């Protein structure tokens, strides 16, 4: 006999776990199925931890409305998780500083990016070079100006996953978890849905949510052409003697020197570490941390903040973002019977969009979209035209 539940969720990352909690809080019995040995061991734990409102290009198109909703939910969502789990998730609220290291990058920011920033529902503040260095004195002397994105947040993704997974076990929520269980097929009928596992077991549910990150294409044949992995590498450093946040903001730039390009991104942690990234390799699916990526990141960091390039590296990792061809998540029913939902393709914005995605999934399964959630679901609907975003 198959194992039964109201909702089976394939994927135990931040999206799957957040959706599980939202559904169980509304009275649904939930079973989370994950191929890994522990929840959150994929892209969620490999993330940099920025709660991004404007830094990623995809933030500045139609998705900005979904991001705004998620950002509005975020601090309350974290407070709820902490109160239930007892695991505090410190949040850096100084915002993100995006700087230019030469006139070419400054013109790009002013001519191409700033109009899109000002058209988003978030604030942007222009900074002179002196103002940027006043906020972050270790910035390179090469900085000629920049912008503060004050509504962007940052946190430690591993602490977030610890708080979220602990909250799943707290109280009497009807949530079960099966780790080490790989789903191989999802099917639906008018009366329900079924998940088949690699070991031959079956799960029967009223609804199935596919939130399997970069594994989702194998379970969503209708959208396989629109989903792909994006490999990214990053590392943690520890500035000597640092206690508390070593920086007041997270900091980003695009750096080019001839044929070389890098996207150095610094995210301080509450315990004195600074995460440094990041690389982008579309359609690469291995998780090997490489010396080449470390060199690329370090060269970019040295241009952005020379002192930071001297800090000892304490951990180097690689992860796979679940990408989509338009860099927006796919959230909605993907079968003819409205039994199978996708919640995937967040393209590096899974941490940012977790609260909103959980709410949207719960709304869809309840069958009662609200005036607030209906336009957000329309933006992420699976049957949209997939148009690559402007860069």
TrEMBL record:
Say if the entry is tagged with keyword Oxidoreductase.
yes
Its domain of life reads: Bacteria
Residue ranges of domain FAD dependent oxidoreductase in the record: 6-363
Q: Which SUPFAM superfamilies does this one have?
A: FAD-linked reductases, C-terminal domain, FAD/NAD(P)-binding domain
Keywords noted in UniProt: Oxidoreductase
Q: Extract one GO molecular function annotation from the record.
A: glycine oxidase activity
A Pfam family annotated for this UniProt entry: DAO
Q: What does the entry list under GO cellular component?
A: cytoplasm
EC no. given is 1.4.3.19
Q: What is this protein called?
A: Glycine oxidase
Q: Native species of this protein?
A: Sphaerisporangium siamense
């Amino acid at each position: 006999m198959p194992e039964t539940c109201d909702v089976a969720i394939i994927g135990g990352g931040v999206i799957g776990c957040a959706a599980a909690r939202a559904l169980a809080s509304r009275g649904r019995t939930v079973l989370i199925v994950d191929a890994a040995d522990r929840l959150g061991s994929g892209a969620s734990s490999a993330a940099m931890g920025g709660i991004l409102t404007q830094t990623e290009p995809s933030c500045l198109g139609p998705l900005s409305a979904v991001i705004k909703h998620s950002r509005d939910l975020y601090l309350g969502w974290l407070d709820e998780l902490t109160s239930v789990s007892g695991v505090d998730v410190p949040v850096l609220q100084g915002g993100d500083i995006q700087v230019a290291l030469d006139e070419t990058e400054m013109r790009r920011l002013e001519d191409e990016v700033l109009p899109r920033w000002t058209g988003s529902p978030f604030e942007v503040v222009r900074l002179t070079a002196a103002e940027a260095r006043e906020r972050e004195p270790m910035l390179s002397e090469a900085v000629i100006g920049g912008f503060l994105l004050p509504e962007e947040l940052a946190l430690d993704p591993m602490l977030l996953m610890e708080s979220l997974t602990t909250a799943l076990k707290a109280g009497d929520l009807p949530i079960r978890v099966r780790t080490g269980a790989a789903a191989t097929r999802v099917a639906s009928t008018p009366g329900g849905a079924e998940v088949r596992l690699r070991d031959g077991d079956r799960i029967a549910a009223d609804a199935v949510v596919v939130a399997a990150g970069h594994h989702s294409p194998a379970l969503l044949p209708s959208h396989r052409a629109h989903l792909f992995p994006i490999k990214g590498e990053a590392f943690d450093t520890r500035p000597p003697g640092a206690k508390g946040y070593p920086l007041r903001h997270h900091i980003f730039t695009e750096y080019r020197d001839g044929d070389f390009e890098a996207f150095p991104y610094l995210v301080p942690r509450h315990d004195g570490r600074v995460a440094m990234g990041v690389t982008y390799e579309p359609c690469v699916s291995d998780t090997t941390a490489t010396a080449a990526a470390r060199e690329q990141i370090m060269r970019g960091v040295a241009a952005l903040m020379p002192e930071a390039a001297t800090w000892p590296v304490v951990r180097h990792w690689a992860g796979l973002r679940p990408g989509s061809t338009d860099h927006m998540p796919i959230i909605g029913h993907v079968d003819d019977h409205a039994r199978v939902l996708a919640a995937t393709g967040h393209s590096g914005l899974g941490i940012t969009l977790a609260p909103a995605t959980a709410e949207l999934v719960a709304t869809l399964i309840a069958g009662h979209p609200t005036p607030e959630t209906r336009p957000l679901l329309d933006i992420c609907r699976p049957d949209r035209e997939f148009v690559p975003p402007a860069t």
